[in-house]
Amino acid sequence: MPPARVQIPRSVERLLREVGRLADQRGMQAYAVGGCVRDWLLGLVRTPDLDVTVEGDGIALARAAGPALGGTLRVHQQFGTATRLLRRRGAGPRRVDFATCRRETYARPAAYPAVAPGTLEDDLFRRDFTLNAMAAALGPARFGALVDPFQGARDLRRKRLRILHARSFLDDPSRLLRGVRFAQRFGLRWEPGTRRAARDAASAGALGWLNAGRLRRELERMCGEPDPLACFQGLAALLGPSASAD
After folding, report:
1. How large is the greatest C-alpha to C-alpha distance in the chain, in angstroms?
2. What phi and psi, each to the nearest 5 degrees, are found at residue 192?
């Protein structure tokens, strides 16, 4: 069974409790989501920038958090998102990104998605891999409770990298490169169906569908990993003609 609760580091606990309290006061539910939850489950206590998704109005919550969090606010109304850039103290985060829970649809492969309001499960389902599709509740009654509808914690324990649906790499081919980075960083094995989907997308030329800016950003992130050469070797092993499924 996956862990029922997430051990949220002390360096961000007070901040996130306040975010959860403010959301609760306004009839909303707020959750920490994505990479920070993954890292906390792995016992990594570094303080990343934080992603908060809200069943309610993410922008309104970001505004309400001003007196408690301080910093400056940037709002992206068309996407339902906002960012608080914080005055970092000690080990605290540099920024908190707030978003309204949303679902995404893709008009064609590699297109930017169309977004619409959604549930927390919709919001998690749009993520790249199960290990990034987990949330930690921030409300006072459930603070730290793990929300894991796609068994990401189980995949982490099994050291397995798995997509959430079969069209994942076609919807967003940059996930091929992100998968290579995650596999190398965390010592993961590609789940066999995920490996097949990756190879099928690559054979269809999916990486060539990305515009130059998106491709460059992902390659720069790969170069920023602790062992970039191992990442590129992993990419070649994944996509090369002699690669075989796990």
Report:
1. 57
2. -55, -45
Do the Cβ atoms of 178 and 214 come closer than 8 Å?
A: no
Give Cα 133 to chain centroid, integer Å. Answer: 6
Name the pairing type of β-strands 135-137 and 146-147. antiparallel
Tell me what percent of the residues of the chain surpass a pLDDT of 90. Answer: 75
SS3 category, 105:
strand
Residues 179, 129 contacting (CB under 8 angstroms): yes
Q: State CA 186 to chain mean position distance.
A: 15
Question: Whole-angstrom Cα distance, residue 195 to residue 64?
Answer: 43
3-state DSSP assignment of residue 139: coil
pLDDT score, position 172: 94
Instruction: Using only the alpha carbons of the chain, give its radius of gyration.
Output: 18
- Whole-angstrom Cα distance, residue 169 to residue 40? 26
Q: CB-based burial of residue 15 (10 Å sphere; 0-12 exposed, 13-18 middle, 19+ buried)? A: buried
First to last CA, the chain: 24
The closest of 85, 21, 26, 81 to 52, measured between CA atoms, is 81
Tens digits of per-residue pLDDT, 99-119? 999 998 887 877 778 888 899
pLDDT for position 243: 45
CB-based contact 29:23 (threshold 8 Å): yes
Q: What is the pTM of this model?
A: 0.90
The pLDDT of residue 4 is 83
